[in-house]
Amino acid sequence: AKAAGRGRYRFYEPSMHNNAANRQMLENDLRGAMERDELSVVFQPIFRAAGEDVVGFEALVRWQHPKRGLVSPTEFIPLAEECGLIGVIGEWVMVEALQAVHSWPASFRLAINLSPVQFNDPRLVEMVASALAAARVDPSRLELEITEGVFLTDCDTTDATFTKLKELGVRLVLDDFGTGYSSLGYLKKAPFDKIKIDRSFVRGAGVDESRNAAIIRAIVTLAESLGMDTVAEGIETHDDLQLMRSLGVSEVQGYLFGKPLPMSEAMSLAHRRMAD
Ligand code: C2E
Ligand code: CA
Ligand code: CA
Ligand code: CA
Known about the structure:
The longest helix has 17 residues, at 209-225. By secondary structure, the chain is an alpha/beta fold. The termini are far apart. Helix 3 (86-100) packs parallel to helix 4 (124-135) and helix 4 packs parallel to helix 5. The chain contains ten helices and nine strands. Strands 1-2-4-5-6-7-8-9 form an eight-stranded mixed beta barrel, surrounded by four helices. One calcium ion binds next to loops. One calcium ion binds at residues 176, 198-199, 233.
C-alpha cells in the first residue's frame, strides 16, 4: 500500500517501535482515525457476583489501523492524552456507546472510561450532560470509570468537577483500585459509588493466592463501610469467581464471561449466559 494523502497509509518497521518518528506517525494517523471510521466501541458484560444477572456493560474503544491492524488502547490512549486528542476521542466514545443503551433492558448500566486528562477540560460536565440528553439516557444509568491519576493534577477543579458530575446524577467508579498511590485519601475526598478492584489483585502472577484474597477482603470491607459497591475485573476462571463470591465482591467482569465484543454479539452472549 502507498501514501494516499497526507499522513495516511504509512509503513511501520518493527525497529521503529516506540521511537519518536514512530510516535509521530501514529499520532498523525490517530488524528484522522475518526474521520476514516477506524475507531469502534466494544462492550464487555458486568455481572452480579451472586447469581448470573447482567448489570451492564463496559465500553472499550478499539482502533483498527489500516496498516498495523488492531492497535491497543493501552498504546493509543496515552498518545491521545499527550497530543490533545483525548477530548474528541472521549466524546466520540461517549456518544457512540450511549446509542447502544436504547436496545438494553432498563436495568442495564453503561460504564465508560474517562481519562484524567479529560478533567482538564472545563466543558467535561457539559459534554457528559449533553451526550446523555441527546441519547435520552437517564444519568443514573451511566457509570464513569476514573483512575487515581485524576488526582495528580489540579485538585480544586477536580473536586468541583466531581461534585458537578454527582449533581448530574451519574455514578462514579474508582478504576484500577490499588495500583496507584494514596488511594485511601482519595476515597475520603471524592464521592465514588463503586470501587473497581484491579485485575492484578485477582490474578497477581506468582503471588500467593491467600495474599490476594486478604487484600481483596480488605478492599471489600473498606468499600462496604464507606457505602460503596465493588466490582472485580479480570475474572478468568471459575475459581476466580468462587473466590470473589466468597469475599463478598458485588460485581464481576472478565474473560470467563466474555471478552469485549461489538454490541450485538455482546448482547446475545449476555442473554445466553443469563438463560443458562
Ligand atoms: P481498563 O479500564 O482497566 O479495562 C480493562 C481491560 O482489561 C480491557 O482492556 C479489557 O479488554 C481487559 N480485560 C477484560 N477482562 C479481562 C480478563 O479476564 N483478563 C484479562 N487479562 N484482561 C481482561 P482493553 O480494552 O485493551 O483496554 C485497556 C485500557 O485502555 C483500559 O483498561 C482503559 O484504561 C483504556 N481504555 C480503553 N477504552 C478506553 C476509552 O474509551 N477511554 C479511555 N480513556 N480509556 C480507555
Ligand atoms: Ca475501566
Ligand atoms: Ca484495570
Ligand atoms: Ca485502566
